[in-house]
């Protein structure tokens, strides 16, 4: 028996009914009572009495009550189907739409038999349909969809106006959670393959607890949250709050804000996302007061393409540009959040877009931006609380308190200065550009809090006072915020909101870096250029080799704390860094007489430099004090009229200096290595010329050249020296003028003032820092200071005046360059080494060198010695290098030192004994310790060649020429 | 011939018409055989589709509100108590109830067991009977106790289990699925009466009479909508006067038979049968009959006035 679509069964009495009528004859007159005639085919009419059931009652029997006869528990317990407190597929109603073929109606209405067939299958129906007694197979709810096609859309969800149907659960959502599937099943629902949603995932055709035959309730979003619990109960994301008061009243919709307030599961107006309404209107039903004005910068249409591309535009509307109802990143349903977690949520919200690449470049934040967070009790900048009526502080939760309310927030947030939805009334249109709560012109906004900075308005750092058009052009009218000259509120390059990029390492000293961005090399402020040579900035020098305690930490001048500096050295960390702001103050104190060049009061005096460079004050007592009356005319003649505006200005310029050391004039080009070091060149600039010539280039201590290894001072000893330069490779030490000299002088503990580094010169302390082994000379016969009155003083008293070394040497003005010999002597014709002459200069003087007089000194040399040494070598008896004295130190034409026995072969004129200085101090002056290289004759070179005769030859060597002629084996 | 034929034809028609008229007249003239019953009380107590009831000592009525897994107790004075067995006797859609010696026995269908409760609904024991076949679940729909005999209706196996009281030791199991003879098709409710056990074989539309030992004695199998016929016989109770009360949920009446299954009438008054809304379980106490009306969510207590 087939039934056509929507066919009224009542009018079409089935064949079975016909049989039934024939059998029952008059017992049951109307066959239309029995649309399921099979069930009653066996009823035998027995006329035992009257009928219990009337024709009218029979109608109801074939509806729901007949089913209840078996499903009341007696066959199957499906009492929930009849529970008036439960819900199910509606029956006894006229269907809204035309039904497909094969779904019968009873009297034009749906009834149990529309879907169910209690006995047997329809021809062609599969056996599976028998169990639930459905007319047709309902695999994947196809039987449901046969009628409800418009409520189940296959295909891409993006275009669907219905909840996803028969689609595999999305693994990125909680819908793929098997626990959710289990919950659905426990509620009597069914889940498709791999979590696919079916009709019966949400609906139960019978016995459903909720209206619309839902498996559970929706008044508190219970049903939706089974699968979408990640949206409802997420601990990692923020979602639109549920169960709140719902101002948007819609019939058959939850009274509170629930999933179904905004979403429509079937036939939603907005496909894909299944929203009840397109655009911002949906949000504004409840959030009407947050509607953005037409020209607001946060409306989607004003966004950049890039920003718009990053938006989730599903559902459209301006609200979604910043807020997403589900899986938001932060409070207020922020699309994205950024910034430190300690920030108020409101500001993190703003940073979500403005702290990223999304927005316009000029609206981006970072890396440095204005402080946000709890309002500090005491601010370092002296900022005061902003006026609440204009610039509100936010509450703990990031909410702007009601204007005029008693409650006042404590957090400084983005919305302290900017409005979002709370646009102040009567705000000038031009301020909408930045959503500022008040104008920023002339620092009005900034100075609301930073009142102590107000004095800047009267200075040339107020851009409104800039007269030069090219500079003024850098500050457009709309941004004529005084503070913006130096500060960038949102995208600063350094701390203190200075712009970047900066010429200095902003980590080291951001303030100075900011100054140099205008006043540094290559900038436009020519008259105030800092120049290539300027006062050094950076960590305060410690008591190291660089400072020698020359600098005094200023009490009145601030050093800049710098975290990065602290990480370098602990000692410097405690002091901080010298910065532009150490001497300058751009925001003068109110009512204070504003000094020139924004200098701090302590820096305005003539001797301002000595506030830190206190030790340099001794310059006044030295020959270098060029301001001394005697010097002025000479200097003026030499360099032109000196700048006497400050004590140091004749030689130094703090800014715009022409050379290192803040030198006032340009240094000449280096002509040779001697002048290579710039600082030395500063000295040489005067001291190579008359009237200040003190140095003979050719006969001076080498400078600008690398120190030989043997002269490299120990780390401890270096502290006694001044500056030791480095070679170009930065590897090797180079002696420069400042290594030995302090051109500003130094006051010794005894009150004397010298121009030398170290402890002074009397005992050669300075020289012996490098020439260590020369120290034995002190107190030895070669220390001319020991000569008694009347004795011969070859140094003419220089050692008494300038120290022991000066007895023989002159560092800058030597008469003989080799060895810096201070006095001149001539080399006798045909006689040996010129250095020997240096010795003979004294030791041939019969008047003064009694007992040490040398009559003969020339030892056979050349080939003979060479052959002798060769022979000894073969016998493995050659003298050691030590005994031979220093190897060829120099070459003189036709002379080979190695094979020439001369004074220094046997003697070291600085070493009284052959022992190290520590062991030799107290040794008496004996023949065995007469500057000989060995400690006795047996160990000298003589014994190697002369054997036992060595002692006699030695004693007579300088006395008798005969000994020279009687050399054994010769 | 033709005339004869024509007369014969006419006679047949006339006869047929006369017979029909007679039949019709007879039917129109016929009246219901009524067993007078007056309503004494109606127990509602916010029940939902109760299935069975039983009288205890001194006429306390116990109604099984099984859809809500509870028992409604009505004292003779009309006071209502609700018993909700907890713990190990928490019910799951029970269908049948009986009371014996102050104890309540519930056929806890959903839990496949019999629950023995005290008068306050506290759990005394939980009894599980061996099903007829291992793969067939034990689905008790009703229980009746008389002396040392217990009969439990097992819808799962389409059978009844005879047990010993109070041990509930299983003695015999009778019945197989079928539609004819001694077989059962969804037996439902049961009662002890004089002469044995009375059982409704629901889907077969018949009333079965067995001996206490389980032997088949008699059955009443008349499907129809008239007196003495059944469509869906559900409840059965045996009165003190050998009246066998049988409710039929489809017909909505309670018919009365004697133990020989002679039709005695239908409960009613004023010559009309009383219509119940889906009557199911029945319970008798003296001359009171409790009829569980499932669709009315109530139990109607009637006083039987005529035998």
Q: Which terms would index this structure?
A:
heterodimer, A: 970 residues, mainly alpha, two-stranded antiparallel sheet, two-stranded antiparallel ribbon, 8 strands, disordered N terminus, disordered C terminus, B: 307 residues, mainly beta, nine-stranded mixed beta sheet, four-stranded antiparallel beta sheet, 1 helix, 25 strands, globular
Tell me what you see in this structure.
- The complex is a heterodimer of chains A (970) and B (307).
- Chain A has 970 residues and is an all-alpha fold.
- Chain A contains 33 helices and 8 strands.
- Chain A has a two-stranded antiparallel sheet with strand order 1-2. Chain A has a two-stranded antiparallel ribbon with strand order 3-4. In chain A, strands 5-6 form a two-stranded antiparallel ribbon.
- The N terminus and C terminus of chain A are likely disordered.
- Chain B is mostly beta strands.
- In chain B, 9% of the residues lie in helices and 46% in strands.
- In chain B, strands 1, 18, 19, 20, 21, 22, 23, 24 and 25 form a 9-stranded mixed beta sheet that branches.
- In chain B, strand 14 and strand 15 form a beta hairpin.
- The longest helix of chain B is centred in the N-terminal third of the chain and has 28 residues.
- Chain B is globular, with a radius of gyration of 22 Å.
């Amino acid at each position: 028996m087939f039934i056509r679509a929507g066919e009224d069964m009542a009018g079409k009495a089935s064949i079975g009914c016909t049989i039934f009528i024939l059998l029952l004859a008059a017992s049951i007159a109307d066959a239309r009572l029995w649309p399921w005639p099979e069930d009653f085919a066996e009823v035998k009419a027995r006329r035992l009495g009257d009928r219990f059931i009337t024709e009218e009652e029979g109608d109801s029997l074939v509806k729901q009550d007949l089913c209840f006869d078996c499903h009341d528990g007696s066959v199957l317990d499906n009492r929930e189907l009849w529970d008036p407190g439960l819900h199910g597929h509606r029956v006894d109603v006229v269907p809204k739409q035309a039904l497909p073929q094969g779904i019968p109606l009873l009297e034009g209405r749906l009834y149990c038999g529309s879907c169910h067939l209690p006995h047997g299958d329809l021809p062609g129906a599969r056996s599976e349909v028998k169990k639930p007694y459905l007319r047709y197979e309902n695999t994947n709810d196809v039987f449901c969809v046969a009628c409800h096609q418009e409520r189940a859309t296959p295909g891409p969800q993006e275009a669907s106006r219905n909840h996803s149907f028969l689609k595999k659960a999305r693994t990125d959502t909680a819908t793929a959670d098997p626990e959710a599937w289990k919950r659905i099943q426990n509620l009597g629902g069914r889940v498709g393959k791999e979590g696919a949603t079916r009709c019966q995932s949400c609906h139960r055709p019978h016995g459903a607890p909720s209206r619309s035959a839902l498996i559970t309730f929706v008044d508190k979003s219970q049903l939706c949250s089974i699968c979408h619990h990640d949206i409802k109960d997420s601990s990692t994301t923020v979602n639109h709050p549920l169960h709140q008061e719902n101002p948007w009243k819609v019939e058959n919709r939850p009274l509170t804000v629930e999933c179904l307030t905004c979403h429509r599961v079937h036939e939603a107006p907005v496909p894909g996302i299944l929203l009840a309404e397109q655009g911002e209107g949906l949000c504004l039903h409840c959030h009407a007061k947050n509607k953005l004005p037409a020209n607001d910068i946060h409306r989607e249409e004003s966004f950049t393409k890039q920003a718009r591309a990053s938006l989730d535009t599903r559902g459209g509307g301006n609200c979604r540009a910043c807020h997403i109802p589900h899986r938001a990143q932060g409070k207020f349903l922020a699309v994205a959040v950024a910034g430190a977690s300690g920030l108020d949520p409101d500001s993190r919200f703003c940073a979500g877009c403005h702290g990223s690449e999304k927005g316009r470049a000029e609206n981006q934040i970072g890396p440095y931006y204005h402080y946000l967070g709890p309002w500090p009790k005491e601010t370092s900048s002296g900022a005061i609380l902003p006026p609440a009526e204009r610039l509100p502080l936010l509450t703990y939760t990031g909410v702007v308190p009601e204007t005029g309310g008693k409650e006042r927030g404590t957090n400084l947030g983005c919305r302290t200065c900017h409005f979002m939805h709370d646009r102040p009334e009567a705000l000038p249109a031009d301020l909408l550009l930045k959503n500022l709560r008040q104008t920023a012109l002339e620092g009005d906004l900034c100075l609301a809090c930073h009142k102590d900075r107000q004095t800047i308005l009267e200075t040339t750092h107020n851009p409104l006072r800039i007269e030069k058009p090219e500079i003024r052009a850098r500050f457009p009218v709309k941004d004529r915020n005084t503070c913006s000259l130096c500060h960038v509120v949102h995208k600063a390059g350094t701390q203190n909101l200075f712009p970047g990029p900066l010429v200095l390492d902003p980590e080291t000293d951001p303030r100075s870096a900011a100054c140099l961005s205008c006043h540094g090399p290559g900038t436009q402020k020519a008259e105030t250029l800092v120049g290539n040579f300027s006062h050094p900035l950076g960590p305060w020098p410690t008591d190291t080799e660089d400072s020698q305690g020359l600098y005094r930490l200023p009490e009145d001048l601030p050093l800049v704390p710098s975290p990065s500096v602290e990480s370098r050295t602990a000692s410097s960390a405690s002091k901080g860094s010298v910065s532009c702001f150490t001497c300058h103050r751009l925001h003068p104190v109110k009512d204070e007489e504003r000094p020139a060049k924004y200098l701090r009061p302590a820096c305005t005096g003539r001797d301002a430099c000595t506030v830190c460079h206190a030790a340099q004050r001794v310059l006044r007592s030295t020959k270098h004090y060029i301001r001394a009356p005697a010097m002025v005319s000479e200097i003026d003649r030499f360099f032109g009229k000196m700048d006497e505006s400050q004590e140091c200005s004749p030689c130094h310029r703090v800014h715009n200096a022409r050379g290192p050391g803040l030198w006032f004039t340009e240094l000449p080009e280096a002509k040779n290595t001697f002048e290579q070091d710039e600082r030395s060149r500063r000295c040489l600039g005067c001291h190579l010329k008359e009237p200040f010539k003190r140095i003979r280039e050719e006969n001076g201590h080498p400078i600008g050249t690398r120190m030989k290894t043997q002269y490299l001072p120990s780390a401890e000893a270096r502290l006694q020296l001044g500056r030791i330069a480095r070679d170009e490779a930065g590897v090797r030490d180079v002696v420069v003028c400042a290594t030995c000299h302090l051109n500003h002088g130094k006051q010794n503990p005894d009150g004397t003032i010298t121009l030398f580094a170290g402890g002074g010169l009397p005992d050669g302390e300075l020289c012996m820092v490098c020439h260590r082994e020369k120290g034995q000379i002190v107190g030895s016969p070669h220390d001319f200071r020991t000569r008694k009155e009347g004795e011969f003083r070859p140094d003419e008293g220089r050692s008494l005046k300038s120290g022991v070394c000066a007895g023989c040497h002159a560092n800058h003005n030597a008469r003989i360059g080799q060895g810096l010999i201070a006095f001149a002597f001539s080399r006798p014709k045909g006689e040996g080494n010129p250095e020997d002459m240096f010795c003979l200069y004294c030791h041939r003087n019969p008047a003064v060198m009694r007992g040490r007089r040398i009559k003969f000194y020339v030892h056979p040399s050349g080939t003979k010695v060479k052959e002798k040494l060769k022979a000894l070598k073969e016998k493995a008896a050659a003298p050691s290098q030590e005994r031979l004295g220093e190897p060829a130190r120099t070459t003189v034409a036709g002379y080979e030192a190695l094979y020439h026995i001369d004074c220094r072969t046997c003697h070291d004129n600085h070493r009284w004994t052959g022992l190290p200085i520590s062991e030799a101090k107290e040794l008496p002056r004996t023949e065995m310790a007469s500057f000989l290289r060995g400690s006795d004759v047996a160990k000298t070179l003589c014994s190697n060649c002369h054997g036992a005769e060595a002692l006699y030859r030695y004693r007579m060597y300088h006395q008798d020429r005969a000994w020279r002629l009687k050399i054994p084996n010769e | 011939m033709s005339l004869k034929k024509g007369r014969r034809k006419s006679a047949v028609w006339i006869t047929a018409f006369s017979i029909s008229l007679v039949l019709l007249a007879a039917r129109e003239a016929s009246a219901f055989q009524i067993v007078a019953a007056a309503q004494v009380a109606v127990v509602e107590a916010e029940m939902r589709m109760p299935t069975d009831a039983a009288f205890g000592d001194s006429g306390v009525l116990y109604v099984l509100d099984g859809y809500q897994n509870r028992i409604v107790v009505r004292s003779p004075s009309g006071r209502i108590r609700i018993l909700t067995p907890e713990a190990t006797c928490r019910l799951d859609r029970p269908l049948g109830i009986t009371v014996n010696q102050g104890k309540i026995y519930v056929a806890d269908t959903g839990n496949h067991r019999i629950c023995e409760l005290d008068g306050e609904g506290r759990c005394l024991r939980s009894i599980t009977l061996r099903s007829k076949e291992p793969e067939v679940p034990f689905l008790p729909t009703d229980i009746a106790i008389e002396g040392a005999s217990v009969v439990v209706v097992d819808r799962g196996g389409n059978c009844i289990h005879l047990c010993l009281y109070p041990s509930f030791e299983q003695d015999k199991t009778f019945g197989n699925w079928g539609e004819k003879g001694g077989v059962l098709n969804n037996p439902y409710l049961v009662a002890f009466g004089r002469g044995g056990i009375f059982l409704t074989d629901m889907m077969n539309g018949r009333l079965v009479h067995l001996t206490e030992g389980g032997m088949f004695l008699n059955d009443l199998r008349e499907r129809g909508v008239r007196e003495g016929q059944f469509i869906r016989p559900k409840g059965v109770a045996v009165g003190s006067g050998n009246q066998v009360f049988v409710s039929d949920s489809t017909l909505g009446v309670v018919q009365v038979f004697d133990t020989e299954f002679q039709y005695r009438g239908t409960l009613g008054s004023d010559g009309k049968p009383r219509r119940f809304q889906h009557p199911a379980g029945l319970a008798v106490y003296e001359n009171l009959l409790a009829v569980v009306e499932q669709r009315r969510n109530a139990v109607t207590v009637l006083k039987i006035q005529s035998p």
